[in-house]
């Protein structure tokens, strides 16, 4: 009787044990697949913000240019090359913002890397001949336009869909949500800024041409588009004159640009200085652009 019982129970136990092992393996495999994320390398903070807005919890991201460093001036390190060699996606602005991007792409061995030049397809603003002599012929600060930010975010979305088509609807929903946030912010400040008589402001460097085009504002700057060179005495005199003429209350300076000249200019005019964020180093995109617009709006009243 015991032998018969063993013949029945023995195989049954083996079947249960094997089934448990298979189920455990499937659970481990499913867990690994669920946790596997697209590895994204972005050039600087604004590109990281766009990628996170679209990629959400489907991506793991690292930013090449550290906080407090100008993307124009940065030189990639060995760790950046290593990250690029194993990345699924590389996101950069383009337009000579990251002069090192082309060299780093040539030097790595990563045939599966998808590369997104986020500014592709944007409505670009030409720089002056002097400004564009070494850096290209277009203002690279595309991301500081709420309208052009949609172009950059859409380019990133298309790349993520290409890499991970099974989650296409997820990326598209995230893009629609981000697009609505951008449109709502634009509508809010259009209604505030449009009635104003004075629409002139002064910045440390000429990073806000796209934003000005969007809101019919006029930007004067201490330094040029690429924040290079010291302003001439004639330039300072001109800015003082403009500031007094429009009763300028604020001279803006940026997070990565020396405030010394802006502070001198502000004293000459009788204005205060305040920091405005170009999102190159830090800041949530929507929140920071709202803060920028609010500061500009208050300075014009």
UniProtKB/TrEMBL annotation:
The gene is adcA. GO terms for molecular function: metal ion binding. The lineage of its organism: Bacteria, Bacillati, Bacillota, Clostridia, Eubacteriales. Belongs to the bacterial solute-binding protein 9 family. This is Metal binding protein. InterPro entries: AdhesinB (IPR006129), Bact_metal-bind_prot9 (IPR050492), Lipoprotein_PsaA-like (IPR006128), ZnuA-like (IPR006127). It comes from Clostridium putrefaciens. The keyword Hydrolase does not apply. Keywords: Signal, Transport. Residues 1-20 form the signal peptide.
């Amino acid at each position: 009787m015991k032998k018969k019982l063993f013949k029945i129970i023995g195989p049954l136990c083996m079947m249960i044990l094997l089934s448990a092992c298979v189920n455990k393996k499937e659970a481990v495999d499913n867990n690994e697949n669920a946790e596997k994320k697209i590895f994204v390398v972005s050039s600087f903070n604004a590109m990281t913000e766009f990628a996170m807005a679209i990629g959400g919890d489907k991506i793991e991201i690292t930013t090449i240019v550290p906080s407090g460093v100008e993307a124009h001036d940065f030189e990639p390190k060995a760790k950046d090359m290593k990250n690029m060699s194993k990345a699924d996606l590389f996101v950069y602005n383009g337009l000579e913002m990251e002069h090192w991007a082309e060299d780093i792409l040539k030097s790595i061995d990563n045939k599966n890397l998808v590369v997104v030049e986020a500014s592709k397809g944007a409505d670009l603003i030409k720089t002056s001949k002097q400004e564009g002599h070494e850096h290209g012929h277009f203002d690279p600060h595309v991301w500081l336009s709420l309208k052009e930010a949609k172009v950059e975010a859409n380019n990133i979305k298309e790349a993520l869909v290409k890499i991970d088509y099974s989650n296409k609807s997820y990326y598209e929903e995230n893009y629609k949500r981000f697009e609505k946030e951008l449109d709502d912010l634009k509508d809010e400040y259009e209604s505030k800024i449009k009635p104003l008589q004075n629409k002139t402001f002064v910045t440390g460097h000429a990073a806000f041409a796209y934003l000005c085009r969007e809101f019919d504002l006029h930007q004067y700057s201490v330094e040029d588009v690429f924040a290079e060179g010291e302003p001439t005495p004639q330039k300072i005199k001109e800015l003082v004159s403009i500031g007094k003429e429009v009763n300028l209350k604020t001279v803006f300076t940026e997070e990565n640009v020396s405030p010394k000249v802006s502070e001198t200019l502000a004293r000459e005019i009788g204005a205060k200085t305040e920091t405005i964020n170009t999102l190159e180093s830090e800041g949530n995109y929507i929140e920071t652009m709202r803060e920028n617009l609010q500061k500009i709006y208050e300075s014009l009243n």
